[in-house]
Design brief:
The protein has 197 residues and is α/β, with parallel strands linked by helices. Helix content is 43%, strand content 14%. It has a 6-stranded parallel β-sheet, with helices on both faces. The termini are far apart.
């Protein structure tokens, strides 16, 4: 099977995440796409990170009626969420399958700073997209040469919805509308549980 791994804080999950997931699902002809919320992000300050329970609940709402799955594998470890460790565990669960690791352009362009990044490249094909411009796209192509994967990574041709979780959190804090950025069920959950205020 071809399995897409879509990790992130999903703080909160938004329409851009879902749009990307569908794009990769089709482009890569995936048999399975797994959203993996980060328990303890190694690279991000988490003062604005809501609980794992809230993030998982929002994902469940967002992924209802989609072909996608959620894994809580990183919460079960109770340590920093290093992708290398997660992929190792998934390899044991799916020993004969091919992994496609979906990451943002900013993460791709600093991938050489990731914990055991060379080992990750042995375990999965990196997939990313250019959200900002043609210049960013060119930077990704150039950086793929530095990583030694210019022939083996996937750069999506999809035009990406420009939205970020931090923008949504800021809008909530400033009492601005987010209905065009998240699903109604996710918006209702955020409101009901007074998240990000």
């Amino acid at each position: 099977m071809n399995i897409g791994i879509f990790g992130g804080a999903f703080n909160p999950v938004h329409n851009g995440h879902l749009d990307l997931a569908y794009s990769y699902y089709d482009e890569l002809k995936l048999d399975k796409l797994i959203f993996i919320p980060t328990a303890i992000p190694p690279h991000k300050a988490n003062e604005y990170l809501v609980s794992g329970t809230d993030r998982i609940n929002m994902l469940k709402l967002a992924l209802k009626d989609t072909p996608f799955e959620i894994s809580t594998i990183e919460f079960e470890r109770k340590t920093k969420s290093y992708t290398f460790d997660t992929l190792n565990l998934l390899k044991k669960e799916y020993p004969n399958d091919t992994f496609f690791l979906i990451i943002g352009a900013d993460q791709f362009l600093s991938f050489d700073k990731w914990y055991r990044y060379k080992d990750i490249l042995e375990m999965a094909t990196l997939c990313t997209c250019a959200r900002e411009s043609d210049a960013e796209r060119q930077s990704i192509v150039e950086f793929s040469k530095k990583l030694g994967i210019s022939d083996s990574f996937h750069l999506s041709s999809k035009k990406v919805i420009k939205v970020s979780s931090s923008e949504i959190r800021e809008r909530i804090k400033n009492k601005k509308d987010i209905s065009h950025l998240v699903l109604p069920s996710v918006q209702a959950y955020i409101k009901e549980n007074k998240l990000y205020v």
